[in-house]
Amino acid sequence: MSEINLPQHVAIIMDGNGRWAQSRSLSRTQGHIEGVRRVEEIVDEAARLGIKALTLFTFSTENWRRPDTEVSFLMNILSQVLSRKLKKLKDDNMRFQMIGRRDKIPDSLWGALEAAVKETQHNTGLVVNLAFNYGSRLEIIDAVREIAALVQLGELTPERIDEELISRHLYTRSLPDPDLLVRTSGEKRISNFLLWQLSYAEFYFTEVLWPDFTVEEFHKAIADYQTRDRRFGAVKSNGS
């Protein structure tokens, strides 16, 4: 893998923790614990490479349908990891962000999320963007509601609504659109993730389950991205 022509923003759907655990006769919680270890490794490697932003699909609005015990475990482990890693985020000049809705998130976890955002807000290195309690359709609905309210107040006319305006009202307004989407575990869909923002992203699907997605596998995804010819709807000078 070359460290030239790196994607500036990588988004990852981290899939397969449960299947990884089941294949080893382990509990699903053990799969999530191993998955957290991969998150820590990939975040560190993305920072080392100089990637600007890493968006991790951690918990979707649909994941509330999982068993209560599993949801509770996920809430607790995220709170613990944030508290444990906050100093490292600060020391490594990483900026933590979260996209998603506040509702349903326990106060203890929300406090840890807010603290991580606040304590790292002035850092200038890798942006670690957690998509938590996130659903892209709801994100677009929230953006439309904000824009409609501006129209209703007379602060905006419908004629001024364009792609840039809509992007400014999405949760990801402070980030560039992803260059590369990675999904593990063999699934080949985007599952209500960044529907607007992924319009021109390159997709990389791998059969590897997330707990087995090592730094070496991350390099493979980036190397594959580096072979792509990104034209954004245009044509080359030779007409192809």
**Order of strands across the biggest sheet?**
3-4-2-1-5-6
As a whole number of angstroms, the C-alpha radius of gyration is 19 Å
Number of helices: 7
Question: What is the highest CATH level, the class?
Answer: Alpha Beta
- Class by SSE composition: alpha/beta
Q: What is the CATH third-level topology name?
A: Undecaprenyl pyrophosphate synthetase
Give the helices and strands as they follow along the chain. EHHEHEHEHHEEH
Instruction: Give the terminus-to-terminus CA distance.
Output: 27 Å
Query: How would you sum up the global shape?
Result: globular
Biggest pleated-sheet summary = 6 strands, parallel
Poorly predicted runs of 5 or more residues: none
CATH superfamily: Decaprenyl diphosphate synthase-like
Oligomeric state of the chains? single chain
- What is the β-strand count? 6
How much is the average pLDDT? 94
Summary, kept brief:
The protein has seven helices and six strands.
Secondary structure topology:
Blueprint: E1 9-13, H1 17-23, H2 28-49, E2 53-60, H3 68-91, E3 95-99, H4 107-120, E4 127-134, H5 136-152, H6 163-168, E5 180-183, E6 202-205, H7 215-225
Parallel strand pairs: 1-2, 1-5, 2-4, 3-4, 5-6
Task: Based on the model shown, name its key terms.
Undecaprenyl pyrophosphate synthetase; alpha/beta; 6-stranded parallel beta sheet; 6 strands; 240 residues
